[in-house]
Amino acid sequence: WTPARAAPMTGSPRRVAGAIARAVRIAWISGADARSRPLRCAPTSPPTATRWHRGFGTAAPRDGDDDGMVEIDAFLAPFKNYEKTGLPDFRRLGTLSRTNEQYEDAAYDLRRVYDLLRALGEPHLWEKTEHTGARWGPGFQTIHVAGTKGKGSTVGFLAGILRASGYNTATYKSPHVHSVAERIVCGPIPPDAAFDERGAHLDPTTRLATHGKIDAETARIILDAQEKEKGTLTYFEILTVLAMVKFRQLGAEMAVVECGVGGERDATNIFTRESIAAVVVTAIGKDHVDALGGTLGHIVRAKCGIVQMHRPTFVAPQTRGDVLRRDDVNALLRSEIRAEGGRWITENDLDVKAFPTGEIEWTAEGKPVQLVDYEIWTDGSDDLRSGKHLAWVKRDLKGVRMSLVGPHQRENAVNALRVMEFIRCGGGRGPEDSDGGYRWSKIADGTMRVGLENAVSPGCFETVLPPLRGRVSTDEVAARERWSRCVDVECGIVADGAHTVESAQAFFETVGEIFTGDPLAVVVAMASDKDRAGFLMEVIKAKPEVIVLTTVPIAGGTERSVSTSTLKEAWEFCEGKMTSAEAYAKKKADEKGEPELFNPWSPPRVLVEDDFDAAIDAAVAGLRKGKRGREGAVCV
Fold it and tell me: Is 294 within 8 Å of 90 (Cβ atoms)?
């Protein structure tokens, strides 16, 4: 039996694993030909239709369509998309706004975004202005999230808790895996939703409103703006504005917004201080270095550019990467947050601790679940503005069953709980020059638990096929069919979008918790702007039996895809470094007269497959040739 050809994948490296997961399902489970759904747009008003046809050619409205809506995927397709082509360097991006350099061709210009928002009535603002007062009702508060790693998962945890608490919560994430509608989600958990015996929502994603269409009037205003700007508005800028319009139309109470690249000059950095409930900075790493200024200092500066005066700012612990670099990052973060006037919320304000139980369960769908105990420590006054210093009070969340697994997800959950506890106690919104505000009182321990358990993040350690021990007995027909089709494959297959040194460390730590002691095969495909050698060195540290180098499309194209020959060159460089290190270690052991201290390196089998499906086949076959036969895990 030969696996079917996988469909072209969409998304960027951070979510490319979601697309990989889809491809693996097609190749290893469904056995059916992938079908790509053609883009379709709904009609617009007559004045717009002509311009729509001129701008989009074959995507013009069809006769007989009368819902007055336009599909976002088709509408955005012609605009400049840096996720597909790759970001230019900082000299064109205009990311160093605090320096004296002048940028004639700034790829990111917030003025364009502000002008478009004004034309649409400033839907992003909490406070009323001359524009918002005429068009919109009450606004929404925003939790703004920046960072290198963990942004998507943190957004998932925050939104899950808010939705479980009954708030109409909107999320804006990027990039997407299958459809742009995944980025813009709005709604509370439906009142008729089904829950299991633990209170976890059984269908946490599909029952929420994902909105893949915009009204014709909004499309007309955007096309007018694009004509005025002489075609310089980008895909991400327009999509960000569309998200704000959707949130306002759907009556969002709280929005959780993820930055795209950097923060200071990112299209999402449009909120006023009055609109910000909290700012969150996740783990910082060296990604998009050339786009953000060329140094670690420039990266931190860009991320902290979203910090607002007197607004609460939550910073995730910097636990991965070089120790000296982590110290530098923490010092830079303190300096930049202080310069922006934000208030860094520390463990002296409130503290949350995570204690993994070490138990891993497998669901009926074949997904791993980690059990974690949390401790929440707050001031005994339960009021962050009271000024009273009473004894600290501890609350426990025992046995939280998180489907987002791994130590890094526990860190992300801790940061999300700190944010939720802070605004529950009255932080996040209030009078000028104050961190305080009224309490988001519907947030409770029970809703925190449900939110953590419901959180999902596509492409983050996504289990495409569980190992044999994870294929639990189930009444679900679809699951039983998947298991039966893979009866000759006992290993597990997981997909992840890790593409930096830090994310590779987090991924393989998670592999060690889920597949403890199991042999590994690793399939590697990368984008052209990533640290290939650094990533492969982390793969070597995981001691896989097999490494398969392959290539995949990124954002539907190959402009950013690294060829297998380039990956092979990176591997040969890493192999040379390991050989040199091994020779040095042997020399030192011999000099000490203790040769038994020398532990020789056992290099893995390295295969090269240009075809992605063949790469998966080779990885599974490679495990079968190992000492443990069919067992183990294929990490894609």
Answer: yes
* 276 bridge partner residues: 142
Q: Are 256 and 107 in contact (CB under 8 A)?
A: no
Section 158-171 average pLDDT: 92
- Burial (CB count <10 Å: 0-12, 13-18, 19+), residue 99: exposed
C-alpha separations of 507 from 318, 513, 539, 541 in Å: 16, 10, 10, 12
CA atoms within 13 A on the CB side of 52: 28
User: Is it the case that residue 20 has pLDDT exceeding 60?
Assistant: no
The CA distance from 144 to 236, in Å, is 16
**CB-based contacts of 352, cutoff 8 Å, min separation 6:** 374, 375, 376, 377, 414, 417, 418, 421
Give the pLDDT score at 284: 86
Are residues 411 and 506 in contact, defined by beta-carbon separation less than 8 angstroms? no
CA distance 568 to 525: 11
Distance CA 469, CA 633 (A): 12
Burial grade of 596 (CB within 10 A; 0-12, 13-18, 19 or more): exposed
Among candidates 573, 524, 563, 578, which has minimal Cα distance to 546? 524
Asked whether residue 107 carries a pLDDT value surpassing 90, the answer given is: no
Answer positive or negative: Cα dihedral of 461, 462, 466, 471.
positive
Tokens of 101: 């350099």
Q: Which two tokens stand for residue 476?
A: 């679900």
pLDDT per residue as tens digits for the range 407-431 = 999 999 999 999 999 988 876 554 3
Helix (H) or strand (E) segment spanning residue 572: helix 564-591
Q: pLDDT tens, 250-307? A: 888 999 999 988 788 888 999 999 889 999 999 887 776 666 776 778 888 888 889 9
Contact 428, 312 (CB under 8 A): yes
Are 276 and 189 contacting, i.e. CB atoms less than 8 angstroms apart?
no
Please answer whether residues 313 and 278 qualify as being in contact, where contact means their C-beta atoms are separated by less than 8 angstroms: yes
Sign of CA dihedral 269, 274, 277, 282: positive
Which residues are CB-neighbours of 541 under 8 A, at least 6 positions away?
A: 508
What separation in angstroms does the CA of 586 have from each of 578, 592, 600?
Answer: 12, 10, 8
Which of 327, 288, 297, 300 lies closest to 500, judged by CA? 288
User: Dihedrals φ, ψ of 65, to 5°?
Assistant: -80, 130
Residues 386, 563: Cα–Cα separation, whole Å:
59
- With a CB cutoff of 8 Å and minimum separation 6, the contacts of 289 are 295, 299
Question: What is the spatial distance between Cα 413 and Cα 455, in angstroms, rounded to a whole number?
Answer: 10
What is each CA distance from 172 to 175, 243, 294, 340, 588, in whole angstroms? 10, 7, 27, 24, 54
| Contacts for 33 with CB less than 8 Å, ≥ 6 apart | 4, 5
Tell me how crowded residue 256 is: count the other CB atoms within 10 A of its CB: 30
Give the pLDDT confidence of 522-537 residue by residue, as tens digits.
999 998 878 899 999 9
312 has which bridge partners?
343
Higher local confidence (pLDDT), 563 or 98:
563
Least trusted range by pLDDT, from 137-141, 167-171, 481-485, 568-572 = 481-485
- The two tokens of residue 558 are 């190959």
How far is Cα 407 from Cα 507, in angstroms, rounded to an integer?
Answer: 9
Q: Which residue has 């009273």 as its token pair?
A: 388
Taking the C-alpha atoms of residue 536 and residue 531, their distance in angstroms, rounded to an integer, is: 9
